[in-house]
Amino acid sequence: MASDALLEEFEVLESIYPTELSKLSERDIQIEVEPEEVEEEDDRLLFVLSVHYPDEYPDVLPDLSLQLAEGELEEQDIEALLNDLRTVGEENVGMAMTFSLVSHLRERMTVVVREKVELKRKGEVEKERLALEARIRGTPVTHESFLAWKKKFDQEMASRKAKEEEEKLKGMTPKEREEYKKFQTRPSGRQLFERDKTLATMDDSLAEEGTVSVDFSQYERRRDQDEEEEESLVEFSDSD
């Protein structure tokens, strides 16, 4: 007979996973678990997490098993996910832990999918590189063929950068995204220079606030007057 605490946990789980959860007995359930996001259908993963609750639960870890229902994953990777779940379970002994286990599994599956996508992308890039080297060795590269290759390469890099920016923005708060976009649109020093090239010849000291411009011609005229007065005194003294 399931404890009241376990029955209460089942009610919560059924409300959270109405279609994913299957109750097999009073102490056995299965939950279908998918990653949080999948870019392409080919990268989709689906696990069935089976949980058996001993009489001592939640003061002991439940029996866990993972079955890969859809997708491809190495056996050692599945075992690593299962070990992660057991670690999380040990940290939550003494309290209802099924929701924490499923949430952690989803997060880890998302990481695994991203790693698979990145690995596949690197494999495709390497394949293209080897194909290009083969063409270079077998066929002379013309200016037109190089430009066509460069156009395709630039498009791929731009697409990759756009995805990286999108991932970066997802992890930001709305305020952080606003500040980040403002920073990205600020003109660089080169752009400022191209807008107004007189900035390159401006004396920085004169551009500082509060600096007074000095007319040195006034001092030149004053010095000439002083010299003339000295000469007239000398002549007067000689006449004596």
Automatic annotation (TrEMBL):
PROSITE patterns: RWD
Residue ranges with Basic and acidic residues bias: 160-182
UniProt region (Disordered), positions on chain: 160-240
RWD domain location: 8-112
Gene3D superfamilies cross-referenced by the UniProt entry: 6.20.400.10, Ubiquitin Conjugating Enzyme (3.10.110.10)
Comp. bias regions, Acidic residues: 226-240
Coiled-coil stretches noted in the UniProt entry, renumbered to this chain: none
SUPFAM superfamilies linked to this entry: UBC-like (SSF54495)
PANTHER family membership: RWD DOMAIN-CONTAINING PROTEIN
Name listed for the protein in its UniProt record: RWD-domain-containing protein
Biological source species: Neolentinus lepideus HHB14362 ss-1
